[in-house]
Amino acid sequence: MDSYNIQWKKSAEKDLLNIDHQQISRIIKAIESLITNPFPVQHRKLQGTNKLYRIRVGYYRVIYQVDTNENILTI
Length: 75
What we know:
Layout: E1 5-7, H1 10-17, H2 21-33, E2 44-45, E3 52-57, E4 60-67, E5 72-74
Parallel strand pairs: 1-5
Antiparallel strand pairs: 2-3, 3-4, 4-5
């Protein structure tokens, strides 16, 4: 499987800054794992959308969009 590039929306970066610092490293690791597998076992497709998915990391949800043509993940 191809590796994906991660693009961060400004709103996601801003939200990440408001999270407890101990949890940020767990969230970053989970996002980096999406580079090689954007559809892990625990992913869920968001209803009513074509390309939006979510994964849970503790109490937090990471919402991301997958562009399989360009190999880009937008967080």
